[in-house]
């Protein structure tokens, strides 16, 4: 699968390029406005060509594109790739607002190509362990899900065109809402608020299905001293699954389990291996492998597409509208 990589900064050049190669994707060209940087990376990773602009390319030489650029230009390049009928993997966020995400979705459908989005938290080792536990049938179905995803940035907007609230969504919220809705789909009502903090922003968003007795919550912010991640799942059997910082999965058993009389306390189901790190452990290589498999006709059901992210954007858009806030400054 002959692939070009557009964007050779920290995410593109230092993360997605080696992850793509580890996934067995044939990267045959790099594109970056800093041609020296692109050429240097091309030599380092034995990529045949480097270009300063997509305008210099013969797109007929490629089957796919990986896009990793700042949010204010990334969506336009993703749309360009889709219009060229290239299967496209775009790093999150794929578009700066809901309207332009829907445009990307339409462009992909019109072109008949895959439009995948880099949502690496779906593929992190700890999340896969949690999904495996839920799919095992041993712990019931998720009734309540809470995802906490906080970091120390952004505290200023990514660009003059974006509000700080939109920048927070692009950096942290898109992951938190996507993961919460993946674990507990089916919400019929969205609510939430921006919480008062002295530094950055903090948001709480909830999705309810009152008739089914189900709820998800996503709390994300830029007020923390460092990155912290936690997932809590309460199932209809009363079991509670806790994933802490993507490193440890614990079970707090429900009262109906046969073995709670012997030991009613928490049990560790999984711990991250000391050697589980890098592109695979963080999910980058597995999701790029899934992208390749999807293009080649395989299922890869966990792969996020532009269509999959429409409900995530819609949820945050509803919160912005309810609070009198905007995507753009």
Describe the structure.
With 329 residues, the chain is of the alpha/beta class. Helices cover 35% and strands 25% of the residues. It is built from nine helices and 14 strands. Strands 8-9-10-7-11-12-13-14 form an eight-stranded mixed β-sheet, covered by helices on one side. It has a six-stranded parallel β-sheet with strand order 3-2-1-4-5-6, sandwiched between helices. Helix 3 runs parallel beside helix 4 and helix 4 (98-111) packs antiparallel against helix 9 (306-322).
Strand-residue proportion: 15-25%
User: Main β-sheet, in a few words?
Assistant: 8 strands, mixed
Helix content range of the residues, please?
A: 25-40%
Please mark out the parts with pLDDT under 50 across 5 or more consecutive residues, or reply none: none
Number of domains: 2
Class by SSE composition = alpha/beta
Number of strands: 14
The CATH architecture of the largest domain:
2-Layer Sandwich
Gyration radius, rounded: 20 Å
Q: What does the overall shape look like?
A: globular
Order of helices and strands: EHEHEEHEHEHEHEEEEEEEHHH
Number of helices: 9
The neighbouring-strand order within the major sheet is 8-9-10-7-11-12-13-14
Whole-number mean pLDDT? 95
CATH class of the largest domain: Alpha Beta
Distance between the termini: 40 Å
CATH topology value of the largest domain:
Dihydrodipicolinate Reductase, domain 2
